[in-house]
UniProtKB/TrEMBL annotation:
<dbReference type="InterPro" id="IPR018445">
    <property type="entry name" value="Put_Phosphate_transp_reg"/>
</dbReference>
<dbReference type="Pfam" id="PF01865">
    <property type="entry name" value="PhoU_div"/>
</dbReference>
<comment type="similarity">
    <text>Belongs to the UPF0111 family.</text>
</comment>
<dbReference type="InterPro" id="IPR052912">
    <property type="entry name" value="UPF0111_domain"/>
</dbReference>
<dbReference type="InterPro" id="IPR038078">
    <property type="entry name" value="PhoU-like_sf"/>
</dbReference>
<protein>
    <submittedName>
        <fullName>DUF47 family protein</fullName>
    </submittedName>
</protein>
Length: 206
C-alpha cells in the first residue's frame, strides 16, 4: 500500500460497510419471499421497500461526504462508483420483490430459488469484504468468488429463460416472470460490478 503523508477521511469505510449490511437485509427478505404464502408477500415487499430507502439514504450520505471531503481514502470516482453499484444491487432486489406482488404471482418458477441463493451468498461476501477496504487486505478471494457466483447466476438465468419459453406458460405469464428473473440477474451483475470496482481500488492502492 502506498505511504501517505496526508490524513484521510475514514468515515467512508463505515458507510460502505453499512450499505453492504443493508444489502444482506435485502437478500434475507428475498429468501423470506420464497417461502411465504402469497398473502404475506405484500408485507415483505413493504419491508424490502424500507430497506431500499435505507440504501438510498446510505448512498446519499456517501455522496454528501464525498462532496464535503478534501482528502478521500481512495480516488473520488471509485468512491462514487462503489456507492452507486452497491445502491444498484438494492434497487434490483427491491424491483424483483415489487414485481412479484404487483403481478400477483402465485408460484415462482423452479430455479428462482437458486438465483436468490446466489444473491444471498454474494451479499454475505460483500458485507464481509467492505471492512477490509481499510487495509486493502483479504480481498482477492472476495472478488474471485463473486465473479464465480455471477457466472453461476448467468447459467441459472439462461436455464430459467429456457424453462419460461418451453410452451408451458402463456405469453402474458412469460412476460411477467421474465421481468422478475431478469431483475434478479441484474442484481447478480451489480454484485460483480461492486467486486470489480473493489479490485480496481485495491490495484490502485497496492
Amino acid at each position: 500500500m502506498r505511504f501517505r503523508l496526508t490524513p484521510r477521511e475514514t468515515s467512508f469505510y463505515d458507510m460502505f460497510a453499512a450499505s453492504a449490511d443493508n444489502i444482506v437485509t435485502g437478500s434475507k427478505l428475498l429468501m423470506e419471499l420464497l417461502g411465504a404464502d402469497p398473502s404475506a408477500r405484500a408485507e415483505i415487499a413493504e419491508r424490502m421497500r424500507a430497506a431500499e430507502h435505507a440504501g438510498d439514504d446510505a448512498t446519499h450520505a456517501i455522496f454528501h461526504q464525498l462532496n464535503s471531503s478534501f482528502i478521500t481514502p481512495f480516488d473520488r470516482e471509485d468512491i462514487y462508483k462503489l456507492a452507486s453499484t452497491l445502491d444498484d444491487i438494492m434497487d434490483f432486489m427491491e424491483e424483483a420483490v415489487d414485481l412479484v406482488v404487483l403481478y400477483q404471482i402465485e408460484q415462482l418458477p423452479k430455479g428462482v430459488e437458486q438465483q436468490i441463493e446466489v444473491l444471498s451468498r454474494a451479499a454475505e461476501l460483500t458485507a464481509e469484504a467492505m471492512p477490509n477496504l481499510r487495509t486493502m487486505s483479504n480481498l482477492t478471494e472476495y472478488w474471485i468468488e463473486v465473479n464465480r457466483l455471477e457466472n453461476q447466476a448467468d447459467q441459472i438465468h439462461r436455464k430459467l429463460l429456457a424453462h419460461l419459453f418451453n410452451g408451458k406458460y402463456d405469453a402474458m405469464e412469460v412476460m411477467k416472470l421474465k421481468q422478475i428473473v431478469d431483475s434478479l440477474e441484474e442484481a447478480a451483475d451489480a454484485f460483480e460490478h461492486v467486486a470489480n470496482t473493489v479490485e480496481t481500488i485495491a490495484v490502485k492502492e497496492s
